[in-house]
């Protein structure tokens, strides 16, 4: 082994610096034996070679104390508790991975942007901030970083092409600003066992005139919600009364995520485009040909308050009141998430795959004795305004971000950790723990073929071409931290009944435009910042092709469904 001849000297030097004395291949081998095994896309020899690269690249940073931060989800808990400790032992860099709330991560990041103080050496924050990072230029663009200051600490086996979410972290300038660490989608969740029960299917067909199945449109979702609500499912092993919908409605920041996270575009608000609508995105914000935001309200060509947006809010309130448990209206995101696992919910349109790990625990009412789930996940249905090519769902990509205010050597050390926890050596094992896929090689790993029957469609979805249509907030949003908080405050007014959906959305788009106008006046984003359109008669925009759109005569077309098993076959 190449380092053995000098291991004593290195150990003494590292101890003097306060670093672990066992930062060598022996520590790496112990980690691979105890934690990774064959749960890797790499062979054991390839794993050891990758670990040797980290050992060599980390030498200049031995003994440094580095701090990184992320939100608290299962994937990051594994990184913080297991991978950070292994990284420290293997490299000699003292790595602390803090876990805090999602909102707190954004707040810390915002504080570092405003003050220039280096609070953390790296952040895992949602790629929803890609438009913010690109315009403010306070996050290092990783394309230039990997060719410049970060070249010596960039893993030759990083294999960017293997990451499935890079298009979400790439700005209009073609540069990569964030490296994906975890991602999950919002999908449709339903009780596969009930939907395939003969009596249930017969009763639904008799009442609605079409087959019970995965809803393709909101009309079918609404019919299914009505059908199941209050229904006695004890003949199929369920409770004597169930609900046809699950959601949440408390005035809380998480209420805003539910709408910025593609509920509007699922309804049909916004333009066609991949991964996000252009020129009008899933927030209803329009940009010009230079990607500069020009408006949010219909009078400026935006769609935040158009008929499709109003329809989206109206339907969610209606379904929450009629078909969800009464307590759901007072719940936040985290409280509502575990409810379907309790066994009395028939379907949920807005369900995050991040809940999968908690939905497959043995003994739950939604699990079979053989370890397979009674439920499945599928693409969410789309609303009456939706057209082929419009965004159909949200996919969160929590990604590593290096700030310009972080000293180069600290950023280099943190970048090593970011690559370690996303490396091919560890990613398969990490994905089995948190079920948040980032690499194609992990998705295709044999262990996930073996485990797929226990995960309710998660593997099938991520192996399908359907996944590319799910995406985070796009680059139309120039200041995510400022604009995101407007959503829950205004939509909360509609949820509480203080305002009609139209009134709430009129207020929301007006407040978004105030932020855009302030950014334009300040000029802090240069020729990438907002350049607002003049207001004109909204009808001119409604008559033009694309978003915004006028109200349809019929917002409830015939319901359409598809057999889940047919859907899966179409993916294969």
TrEMBL record:
* Keywords noted in UniProt: Signal
Using the UniProt annotation, give all residue ranges assigned to the region (Disordered).
549-572
Q: MF terms per GO, please? A: transmembrane transporter activity
Q: Which interval of the chain is the signal sequence?
A: 1-23
The question of whether Acyltransferase is a record keyword is answered with no
**Which SUPFAM superfamilies does this chain map to?**
Periplasmic binding protein-like II
UniProt cross-references to InterPro entries, sorted A to Z: ABC_tp_sb (IPR014597), Bact_solute-bd_prot1 (IPR050490)
Q: Does the keyword Signal apply?
A: yes
What protein name does the entry list?
ABC transporter substrate-binding protein
């Amino acid at each position: 082994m190449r380092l053995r001849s000098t291991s004593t000297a290195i150990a003494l030097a590292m101890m003097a610096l306060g670093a672990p004395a066992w930062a060598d291949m022996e520590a790496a081998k112990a980690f691979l034996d105890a934690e990774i095994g064959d749960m890797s896309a790499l062979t054991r020899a390839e794993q050891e070679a990758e670990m040797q690269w980290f050992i060599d690249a980390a030498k200049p940073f031995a003994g440094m104390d580095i701090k990184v931060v992320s939100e608290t989800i299962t994937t990051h808990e594994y990184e913080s508790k297991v991978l950070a400790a292994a990284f420290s032992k293997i490299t000699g860099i003292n790595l602390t991975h803090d876990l805090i709330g999602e909102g707190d991560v954004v707040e810390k990041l915002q504080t570092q942007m405003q003050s220039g103080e280096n609070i953390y050496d790296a952040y895992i924050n949602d790629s929803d901030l890609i438009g913010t990072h690109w315009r403010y230029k306070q996050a290092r663009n990783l394309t230039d970083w990997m060719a410049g200051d970060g070249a010596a600490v960039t893993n030759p086996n990083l294999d960017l092409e293997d990451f499935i979410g890079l298009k979400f972290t790439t700005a209009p300038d073609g540069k990569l600003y964030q490296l994906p660490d975890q991602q999950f989608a919002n999908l449709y969740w339903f009780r596969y066992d009930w939907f395939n029960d003969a009596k249930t299917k017969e009763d639904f067909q008799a009442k609605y005139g079409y087959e019970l199945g995965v809803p393709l449109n909101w009309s079918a979702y609404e019919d299914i919600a009505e059908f199941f609500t209050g229904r006695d499912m004890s003949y199929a092993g369920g409770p004597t009364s169930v609900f046809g919908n699950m959601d949440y409605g408390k005035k809380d920041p998480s209420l805003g995520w539910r709408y910025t996270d593609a509920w509007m575009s699922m309804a049909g608000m916004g333009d066609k485009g991949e991964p996000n609508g252009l020129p009008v995105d899933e927030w209803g914000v329009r940009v010009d040909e230079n990607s500069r935001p020009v408006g949010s309200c219909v009078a400026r060509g935006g769609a935040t308050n158009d008929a499709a947006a109003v329809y989206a809010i109206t339907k969610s309130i209606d379904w929450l009141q009629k078909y969800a448990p009464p307590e759901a209206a007072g719940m936040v995101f985290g409280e509502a998430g575990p409810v379907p696992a309790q066994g009395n919910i028939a379907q949920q349109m807005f369900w995050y795959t991040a809940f999968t790990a908690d939905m497959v625990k043995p003994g739950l009412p939604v699990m079979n004795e053989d370890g397979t789930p009674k439920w499945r996940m599928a693409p969410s249905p789309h609303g009456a305004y939706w057209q082929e090519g419009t965004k159909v769902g949200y996919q969160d990509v929590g990604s590593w971000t290096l700030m310009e205010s972080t000293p180069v050597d600290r950023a280099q050390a943190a970048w090593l950790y970011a690559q370690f926890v996303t490396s091919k050596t560890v990613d398969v094992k990490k994905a089995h723990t948190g079920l948040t896929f980032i690499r194609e090689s992990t998705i295709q790993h044999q262990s996930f073929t073996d485990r797929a029957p226990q995960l309710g469609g998660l593997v099938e979805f991520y192996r399908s071409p359907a996944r590319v249509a799910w995406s985070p907030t796009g680059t139309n949003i120039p200041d995510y931290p400022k604009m995101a908080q407007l959503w829950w405050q205004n939509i909360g007014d509609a949820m509480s009944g203080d305002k009609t959906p139209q009134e709430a959305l009129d207020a929301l788009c007006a407040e978004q435009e105030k932020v855009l106008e302030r950014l334009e006046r300040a000029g802090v984003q240069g020729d990438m910042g907002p350049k607002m359109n003049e207001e004109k008669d909204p009808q001119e925009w409604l008559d033009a092709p694309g978003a915004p759109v006028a109200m349809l005569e019929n917002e409830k077309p015939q319901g359409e469904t598809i057999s889940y098993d047919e859907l899966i076959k179409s993916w294969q």
